[in-house]
Write a structure and sequence with these properties.
By secondary structure, the chain is α+β, with helices and mostly antiparallel strands. The protein has helices at about 1-10, 60-75, 100-115; strands at about 20-25, 45-55. It starts with a helix and ends in a 17-residue tail after the last helix.
């Protein structure tokens, strides 16, 4: 983890367009499934990361995007290929929150409790690019 922390720091230190770079440790209770826990009752992986940048002027979007890409690159050794649903900001961005079996179970629950699709705008059906 120290090498990635150093890489993130080198790419985003002084003058950074990113206002937040947060790592949340997973594992432990987050990784344990509970037979009584429901469809989504554990999260795989060692870390969840959240980064926020402020687009404050012309050209800032490119800088924020480049720094976010640097953080993702630094975290690549721990990337599970999944996005924690509560960490999703852009629903149109390619991402995946659950494996196929959890997605199927969630869709079955959704059909039963939300047949009108009121809560249909999420990331369960999307995939991440390779």
């Amino acid at each position: 983890m120290n090498a990635s922390r150093a890489a993130v720091h080198r790419r985003t230190a002084a003058g950074s367009a990113l206002t937040i770079i947060e790592l949340r440790q997973l594992g432990g209770a987050f990784a344990m499934t509970n037979p009584r826990g429901g469809v989504v009752n554990s999260l795989p992986g060692a870390y969840a990361s959240l980064s926020v940048g402020i687009v404050a002027g012309p050209g800032a979007a490119g800088e924020v995007g480049a720094q976010l890409a640097a953080v993702r690159e630094a975290m690549k050794p721990w990337d599970t290929g999944l996005t924690v649903p509560t960490f999703v900001e852009q629903f149109d961005a390619p991402q995946k929150s659950f494996d196929a079996s959890v997605t199927a179970d969630m869709q079955a629950v959704r059909r039963r409790v939300d047949p009108g699709g009121l809560f249909s705008r999420d990331v369960t059906a999307q995939t991440r690019p390779a």
